[in-house]
Design goal:
- By secondary structure, this protein is an alpha/beta fold.
- The chain is 32% helix and 17% strand.
- It has 14 helices and 13 strands.
- The strands form four sheets. It has a seven-stranded mixed β-sheet with strand order 3-4-5-8-9-10-13, sandwiched between helices. A two-stranded antiparallel sheet has the order 1-2.
- Helix 2 packs antiparallel against helix 14 and helix 6 packs across helix 7.
- The protein is globular, with a radius of gyration of 21 Å.
Amino acid sequence: MKLCISTVRPCTFPTPKCVSFSVRCSTARPVTQMPKPARLGKRWTEYQGVQNWQGLLDPLDDDLRNEIIRYGKFVEATYKAFDFDPSSPSYATCRFPKLSLFDHCGLPSTGYRLTKNLHATSGIRLPRWIDKAPNWMSNRTSWIGYVAVCQDQDEIARLGRRDVVVAYRGTATCLEWLENLRSTLTQLPGTTNVGLHDEPEPMVGRGFLNLYMSGTAEYRSLRDEVREEIGRLIQSYGDEPLSLTITGHSLGAALATITAYDITTTFRHPPLVTVISFGAPRVGNRSFKCHVEKSGSKILRIVNSEDLITKVPGFVIDEVSSRDAIQVARFPSWLQTQWVYADVGTELRVSSRDSPYLSGPTANVATCHELDTYLHLVNGFVSSQCPFRTTQQPPITKLVG
């Protein structure tokens, strides 16, 4: 077996970079050689989820597939641009200038211009002795992603509107890992109950909310950075067809969901807000799910059935039988309030088991959660009747974990 080895990044898993897969159960096509994008035209709202992607997921529409992978490449750029080296003086920052980030990350022809760097700050209170600890332990604020706006007229014509992208990376720093462990639910600020009288208030994971809401004297909160930039872009382009696509992987997928809800409830006339998330953990409770749906945010969650991260934190009542749900309802109220989550949005489910290149010893926990694996599975998925495209010949290089 040939091996494809990539550089191991701190706080992340090794990522297999060489992928080869096939088309419509017949011919091979690698993810790096996508066909020429189709003109979405007047159907752009359909591909942005205005009808919750009805009729586009099973079988997976080829144009939607290409759009999902295109947004996945925006997320991939956040990993390539992030400085993972804890010994570097620029650790946890963006390695490239805004104007050249896409070029450095292998995306020279996106048609988008990066307009804003985004930062996330941990809300964990650190002890005084932490100042003497290495930077990778004490660093509170890290570059988490960016905002970019489509400026190329040909690409705007193809998309059928001007698109704004917000892209978030996954967990990378020590304090971000600690925030992930703070998984009890906490009330979402500025919301009121929309459900039944016995429904809990809208709540989200404490660690996710802290990373979105916290700031320092040097860096404002991620929420404030996003609100300011989206408000500026709406003011600049609000008189033309406009969409906001928020995309992220892992922790970034959770932050994308919270961001979408924040935007649709903060601005009086927001554009169509769509989330394309990869490997998202659970974000909030059932009341939060209701609020998101009511706000108009459209969320497409790409889920790998073998990815354990998508099954945590907490538990979901909707996934068990009615009898079990009754038993859960008899649990102490604090348990229901703190640990009962709900999956948000429309799901596109894929599986590592369906790929001939992710079976056997390569199907480990790390590989199942990698962004590269998700892009590989999306490109290979056909339908529930034909889960994965077969190849006429063996791939050039096989995936390893």
